Amino acid sequence: MTDTELLEKTTAKAWPDRLYAQLRAGGVTHTSYVPDAGHARLIDLLRSDSEVTATVLTTEEEGVALAAGAWLGGVRSVILLQSSGVGNCINMLSLPVIARFPLLMLVTMRGEWGEFNPWQVPMGQATEDALRSIGVRVFRAETAEELLAIVPAALVEAFDADQQIAILIGQRVMGEKKW
Amino acid sequence: MVSPLDRRAVVAELLRDRGDLLVVTGLGSASYDVHAAGDDPRNYYLWGAMGSAALVGLGLAQVQPDRRVLVITGDGEQLMGLGGLATIAIARPENLSIVVIDNGHFGETGMQTSHTGFGLRLHEVASACGFPRVDHAVTMDDVAALRDLLHAPQTGPHLAVVSVKAENLPRSLPPRDAIHIKNRFRATLGLATA
Asked: Which among A22, A73, A74, B184 is placed 20 to 30 Å from A5, CA to CA?
């Protein structure tokens, strides 16, 4: 294995730890989530951080409202969800769009790469268009390196420029879901 | 049971001598009621995003633990956010109170009977979710006790249903500019507004 290959392999495995460090460096102290295998490590890291308030949701749109409330009170919140949950959020996204609340959603993709479950495909394929249609800007990461390049820029745009942003984390970043 | 309570009088009593209460209102009549009691920069009025009021209140309560946060909303709005009661019960914010002004109807859309009008009891839903305290207010004395609870030591999350008369009162419209409302609210907390 070359050094480059080794670095790529390490990044592929360690991206949730690096993503966590980026979020904390960006001032994030509040998060909410609907559990997802792709976010499992990041959820663990955020939950075990005593300076972060982490809230489990029953459905993803709750996180959109929660993040707005956190910003009213002066705190930066990120929402962790799976692409299937984006569809649940559409009307609730009126709130950050019309009130210009900072919004940063980290969306792990399903239904697009090595997907074994056809039920994930319709919403997975509609995720990007659905977000854009309600007025949320979309960044896509197909590799862990891309993701780690996008996150610091997205943190600035969301919380300093009051933008509504979703980062779609391609299914290739997580690899196939093992069944 | 048909309640005789006037929702405007109920909300005015809840907000009497409000101190430093932070208030989030659900869309529709709850927003008009709070506005009619006196506009205040510490109010965040929702005009949409139905089902969000209690969750906006949760986020605010979590990050402002030394302030009391009151959500005032209607039965229809809270019914749309029913799962949020589970989320709030688990998050357990001691400083959050939710008051549901329950007229048993979808008042904004033609007064169709709502789930509570058909018998659903939202305070019992909240209790089953694990809210440490719930109340059902049916008299103005009950409402006065609720008002005092908002200023007593924190024991929340707390949800109270107030049964009120089903009627469409003259609208008292808060500003519709959501960015303006957000910025003036944040300014009261000393936060940046640009």
From this structure: A22
Residue B113 within a domain: yes
ipTM metric: 0.96
Domain span at residue B149 reads 7-188
Tell me what pLDDT residue A12 has.
62
Question: What is the SS3 string spanning chain A?
Answer: CCHHHHHHHHHHHHHHHHHHHHHHHCCEEEEEECCCHHHHHHHHHHHCCCCCEEEECCCCHHHHHHHHHHHHCCCEEEEEEEHHHHHHHCHHHHHHHHHCCCEEEEEECCCCCCCCCHHHHHHHHHHHHHHHHHCCEEEEECCHHHHHHHHHHHHHHHHHHCCEEEEEECHHHHCCCCC
Put simply, the answer to whether A99 touches B55 (Cβ < 8 Å) is no
Q: How many Å separate Cα A53 from the centre of its chain?
A: 16
Gap between the Cα atoms of B82 and B88, Å rounded: 10
Domain annotation covers residue B38:
yes
pLDDT tens by residue, A60-103 = 999 999 999 999 999 999 999 999 999 999 999 999 999 999 99
pLDDT by residue (tens digit) across A37-48?
A: 889 999 999 999
Token reading at B112: 């169709």
Cβ-Cβ contacts under 8 Å for A80 (sequence gap 6 or more): A31, A32, A33, A34, A36, A39, A42, A43, A106, A108
Which residues of B touch chain A, with CB atoms under 8 Å apart?
Answer: 24, 44, 46, 48-53, 55-64, 81, 83-84, 86-87, 90-91, 178-179, 181-182, 185-186, 189, 191
Which comes out higher in pLDDT, residue B16 or A8?
B16
Q: Provide the pairing of β-strand A164-169 with A137-141.
A: parallel
CATH of the domain at B25: 3.40.50.970
Give A13 to chain B, closest Cα distance, Å: 31
Residue B1 lies in a domain: no
Query: With 70 as the cut, is the pLDDT of residue A9 above it?
Result: no
In a domain, B30, yes or no: yes
What chain A holds in terms of domains, given with CATH numbers, is 3-174 (3.40.50.970)
- The one-letter code for the residue type at A70 is A
